[in-house]
Amino acid sequence: TIEKIVVRMKLYASEMLEPKNIKLEFEVADELKKIEIPMQYRRELYLIFKEAINNAAKYSGATLISVKLLFNNRQLFFCIHDNGNGFNIESQPHGNGLRNMSERAKKMNAQFQLSTSAGNGTEIILKLKFT
């Protein structure tokens, strides 16, 4: 179930964020606790999460990271938002991290969105439809 992956996510995030004094808010919809997600999807979600947390901890200058896992109309909504510096996508060289997250989303047939701008933090949204 999703509960096991959430425990792993929280543990990883606390290990990365606490030393940098970055607060973590985590919201998981009750409906999701009952949903079984295929092993490959859980793996991809976790790796996307790790990459996003790692990037935020290293580069964002954030003091708060908010993670939401919601479920509505058979769709998983996964959002990671930080209140950090953000960056200009056009002028920032793209490393492997952003590309890897996008590729992992494609493996799940999920929509992947990255929203950021200098001074306004960064938000990663993943939408995954269940049939």
Features:
131 residues, alpha+beta, 5-stranded mixed β-sheet
Distance between the termini: 17 Å
Structural class: alpha+beta
* Radius of gyration using CA atoms only: 14 Å
DSSP E strands, number: 5
3D shape = globular
Main sheet characteristics: 5 strands, mixed
The helix/strand series, from N terminus to C terminus, equals HEHEEHEE
SSE diagram, text form:
Blueprint: H1 2-17, E1 23-28, H2 39-60, E2 64-72, E3 75-82, H3 96-107, E4 111-116, E5 122-129
Parallel strand pairs: 1-2
Antiparallel strand pairs: 2-3, 3-5, 4-5
Helix pairs in contact: 1-2, 2-3
Offer a quick outline of the entry.
This protein is 38% helix and 28% strand. By secondary structure, it is α+β, with helices and mostly antiparallel strands.
